Amino acid sequence: MNRRGFLGTLTITLGGVIVAALGVPVIGYLLAPLFTPVPDDFVDVGAVTDFKAGSTTLAQIDDPTPLPWAGQTARAAIWVRRLSDGSFQVFAENCTHLGCPVMWRAAAELFFCPCHGGVFYPDGRVAGGPPTRPLLQRQWTVAGDRLLVRGRDLPNVPTS
Ligand code: FES
Q1: What pTM does this model have?
Q2: Which residue from 15, 125, 147, 155 could staple onto 45, CB 3.0 to 4.6 Å apart?
């Protein structure tokens, strides 16, 4: 092999090594979420006694996520309604029309959506406006004195 051929082969070989060294981690980074299962755990909302019977309260949970750098985006707001029999209804915060956060107005006993005037009854049924589906609910359970909700459901995915 002459000098020109040797340098050409060396350049191509080193270029391939550099592309592989940079490309494999990038491809791994991009494809890893496809193979990482999303945790399907219940997450803690708070003490059961924090929610008075007949009240609807805004609470925050940390959604389980495979992305450790999610930061504030892993926080999710939920509305917790405690019924007089001690059971709960837990609603996703997002309106079922286009996803704006709904607000609970205790005086009216209704959820209002500020975006397009959607209105929901306390049990999540549609009372008026453009939404056609009730507020999405999350599964809940009580463990000891703690209220837990399933953190996996996305607000835009119907649960039933
Ligand atoms: Fe709530 Fe449109 S997003 S009414």
Answers
A1: 0.73
A2: 147
Ligand 1 atom nearest the C-alpha of 99 is 3
Distance CA 43, CA 140 (A): 9
CA 123, CA 91: separation in Å to the nearest integer? 9
By the 10 Å C-beta count (0-12 exposed, 13-18 middle, 19+ buried), 94 is classed as buried
Rounded to whole angstroms, how far apart are CA atoms 149 and 155? 13
Instruction: For a ligand 1 pocket test, name from 111, 116, 120, 136 the mutation site with the most ligand atoms within 8 angstroms of its C-beta.
Output: 116
Asked whether the beta carbons of 28 and 20 are under 8 A apart, the reply is no
**Averaged pLDDT, groups of 10, the chain, 160 residues long:** 92 96 92 77 91 94 74 87 93 93 96 96 95 93 92 52
What is the atom index within ligand 1 of the atom nearest the CA of 114?
A: 1
Task: Assess contact for 79 and 93: CB atoms under 8 A.
Answer: yes
